[in-house]
Amino acid sequence: MDLHHLFDRNVAWAQQKTRDDPSFFVRMAEQQSPKYLWIGCSDSRVTANDVLGLDPGEVFVQRNIANVVHTSDMNLLAVVEYAVEFLRVEHIIVCGHYGCGGIQRVFEDKRSALVDHWLQPIVMLYRKHRAVFDALDAATRLDRMCEINIEMQVRRVAAVPTVENAWAKGRDLTLHGWIYGMHDGLLRDLGPTLSSLATRDALVSIDQRVLDPVEPSSGVRRHAIEAFAALGEPGPRNF
Ligand SMILES: [Zn+2]
Question: Which of 35, 37, 85, 217 has its Cβ near the most Cβ atoms within 10 Å?
């Protein structure tokens, strides 16, 4: 089977972009200058530009299964270095999503595929706190692990030497932990928000967060609640 239909869609897309904005591709051909680095899941439903409402050129992207930050992942480390040192991004957003298939697999005790090895940091966290997670019903347990995984990965980004060096130099660089709800298209700010070595070092451990799952009502959440209230619709789940 050929893929001509994808080329057809590409041509249609390029034509539409040019109609909407005749200088679009002229600008795109110049140097990119995104302000954000997005570290997200490979899930085909969670594309950074669409979720953020941004054009090409506005967000630098790294994606893998379950948005994991491995300390020896040369791909991710090079992306972080390039984004921070050369593109001078001001924000690194770790964004996972509810209903993540990678996270679900952690609960299934499968050990036969490379993906299970990839998910090992989450598996280890689950094993360590199995009693806490297994006390929850299946849906809540999945939601909770999707959230806690993001918090864990933000802590890991905060330990990457590139990020530590930027903070040591006083650079304006902030790390965020967000989660996307595919059921309503909305992002939630889970925290932590880290902007210095001091804020990172003051953070409670991920083990503590598992045992004490208190969530602040962030400005982003309040904004979404108000936006849905204005539409006369019930608030989305998880608010
Ligand atoms: Zn996922």
Answer: 37
Range of the domain at 139: 32-214
Stated pTM of the model: 0.89
Ligand 1 center to 71 CA (angstroms): 19
Whether 154 is covered by a domain: the verdict is: yes
Cα of 40 to ligand 1 centre, how many Å?
8
pLDDT in tens, 165-220: 999 999 999 999 999 998 889 999 988 899 999 999 999 999 999 998 766 545 55
CA of 56 to the centre of ligand 1 (A): 22
Q: How far apart are CA 110 and CA 146, in angstroms?
A: 18
Q: Is 95 a catalytic residue?
A: no
Indicate the number of domains in the chain.
Answer: 1
Q: Residue 25 falls within a domain, yes or no? A: no
d(CA 159, CA 11): 43
* Pairing, β 36-41 against β 59-64: parallel
